[in-house]
Amino acid sequence: MSGPSPNVQLFEGVRPRIIARLVELRGSLxxxxxxxxxxxxxxxxxxxxxxxxxxxxxxDEATQRDFIHTYLAMRAAEAQGAGAALGTLVAIGDVSAQIxxxxxxxxxxxxxxxxxxxxxTAATARLANNVIAEELGRRRAHKRVxxxxxx
Length: 151
Description:
By secondary structure, the protein is mostly helical. It has one domain (about 5-150). Helices cover about 85% and strands about 0% of the residues. Helix 1 crosses helix 3 (about 40-60), helix 1 (about 5-30) packs across helix 6 and helix 5 (about 80-105) packs antiparallel against helix 6.
């Protein structure tokens, strides 16, 4: 059995700094996180970082899509729009890549990790946009049915 991937090892080495930066920025990331104390915000952000690491390891877009669908629904239940929730996910990936770039500059594998984080963030944004577009399509179809009685 092999150990953790080099990307994950590097990421975990700077994870505390990533969480600290995200906690500092939480007011601009997410209004729900802005109302949380530092410890609660850090726990929620750590959970989102766990999801990012999982996606880095598996590159499983179906599982990531399912996560995004659930995340968007949870944020909607807290009166946060899909665009704002998407912005939070992208910001987490961007901040992670920025800190890896700053903190690990010149270390072997750091460039690969930054590229992997950038790819994961872009894929997450694309998947989230697809989920949002599908939901808008369902709402339009439902509106037509209500207005016309036609499918």
